């Protein structure tokens, strides 16, 4: 039995030595690769991590593009609804003024003309950026003008 126990230790020792050597060899390879990467890629850039980050950015850009498209569609819907509402309200106010005998001053026409101009500028921007009637553009200036025209018409 003692002999069998001795063989077991020798086999285990051989296995431990094999793993120790493998661990050492892997450490040497790791060190050499790390040094090579530091020389080739400054700032410890890992090409695989960079590729992964680029893929993630591409996915994010695609998602953002879709969200922007949805936002611009909603913006166009809002503009269309505002236009319909303002035109309806303008006509209603003019009819009420006429029925009450209040003369039309023309002040409302200036605000309404500004509003129509803003709507047309929006449509021109959309067409110029997309090449068609899809609504894939945005402009803070148009938003400000639109808001200004709506406030003036109220």
Automatic annotation (TrEMBL):
Coiled coil: 54-85
MF GO annotations: microtubule binding
Keyword hit for Cytoplasm: yes
Source organism, top-level taxon: Eukaryota
Record keywords: Cell cycle, Cell division, Centromere, Chromosome, Coiled coil, Cytoplasm, Cytoskeleton, Kinetochore, Microtubule, Mitosis
GO BP term, example: cell division
GO cellular component: a single term: outer kinetochore
Location of the protein in the cell: Chromosome, Centromere, Kinetochore; Cytoplasm, Cytoskeleton, Spindle
Database matches in Pfam families: SKA2
Keyword Cytoplasm: yes
UniProt xrefs under PANTHER family: SPINDLE AND KINETOCHORE-ASSOCIATED PROTEIN 2 (PTHR32017)
Family: Belongs to the SKA2 family.
Protein name according to UniProt: Protein FAM33A
Source organism (scientific name): Quillaja saponaria (Soap bark tree)
């Amino acid at each position: 039995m003692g002999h069998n126990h001795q063989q077991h230790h020798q086999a285990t020792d051989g296995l431990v030595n094999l793993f120790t050597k493998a661990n050492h060899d892997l450490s040497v390879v790791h060190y050499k690769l790390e040094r090579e990467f530091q020389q080739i890629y400054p700032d410890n850039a890992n090409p695989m991590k960079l590729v992964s980050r680029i893929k993630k950015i591409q996915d994010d850009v695609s998602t953002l593009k879709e969200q922007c498209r949805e936002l611009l569609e909603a913006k166009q819907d809002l503009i269309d609804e505002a236009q319909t509402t303002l035109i309806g309200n303008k006509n209603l106010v003019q009819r009420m003024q006429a029925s009450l005998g209040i003369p039309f001053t023309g002040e409302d026409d200036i605000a309404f003309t500004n509003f129509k101009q803003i709507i047309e500028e929006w449509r021109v921007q959309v067409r110029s950026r997309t090449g068609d009637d899809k609504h894939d553009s945005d402009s803070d200036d148009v938003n400000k003008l639109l808001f200004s025209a709506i406030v003036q018409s109220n």
